[in-house]
User: What shape does this take?
Amino acid sequence: MRTLDDPERTGRPAPAVLPAPLRARLGLIAAVAALVVVVIGVWYAGDGGPGWVDARFSVAAEDVRPRWRSVALAVDFWGEPAGAATLVGLAVAGCLVLRWPRAAVLVVVGVGLAVATTRLLKPLVGRTIHGDNLSYPSGHTAFCTAFALVVALLVAGRLRLGTTAGTLLALTLTLAAGAAMGWAQVALGAHYPTDVLGGWCAALAVVPATAWLVDRAADAARRGHG
Assistant: This one.
C-alpha cells in the first residue's frame, strides 16, 4: 500500500523527520539540554555518592520500592537490550510499512546515538554508584526519552502539527517516558536522580541534531538521484 507521502505516487518527497515548525524550538531545547548534561557531569565528576538533591529524591523513591519493585522491573525491561530491541524493531517495521525509510533511519540512528552518548560520557565523568558501577548519565533513561522524542517527531510530521502543538507533544511524551524510566532506575537503586536528569537531557540534545542530519542526508541523496 502506498501512502500519500510516497514519492512514487505523488512526486513529492516524504516529510522531514524534523518538521520545519519545530526546528527552532527544539534546537534551543537541545542546546540547553546539552549544557545541563555538561554542568551536571562536571559537578559530579569522580563522585561516588549522592548529592543533596539525589538524597532527597532517592528517599522518596525508596519509600515505595518494596511495594512497587515489580512495576519498576517491568519498566526497566524496556531499557534492557531485549526490550529496547523490541521497541526499535516495531518502530522500524511501522516506518517501512508506511514507506518512510528516513524515519526508520532516525529510529535506529537517533536512539542509538543517544545511548552511545551516555556510554561515552560515563567513563569521562567517572561518577559511580554501588562501588565501581559508572552511573552518569542514565542510559536507560536516555533510550526511553530518545525513543519517545523520535515518535513525537514522526507523529508531528505526519499530522503536520504547528510549532506549539508539536512542541507540546514532544515535551509531553519525553517527560512521560523519562519520568517513568527515571523513577524505575532510582527505585531499583541503579542510578541517582541527577543521573536520570542527565540521561533525559542527553536524549533531548542528541535526537533533534540527528534528525536534522538525517533530513540533510536524505535530501542530498534524493537530489543526487534526481
Remarks:
- DSSP finds eight helices and two strands in the chain.
- Helices lie at 7-10, 23-43, 52-77, 81-97, 101-125, 139-159, 163-187, 193-224.
- Residues 111 and 146 are 5 Å apart (CA to CA).
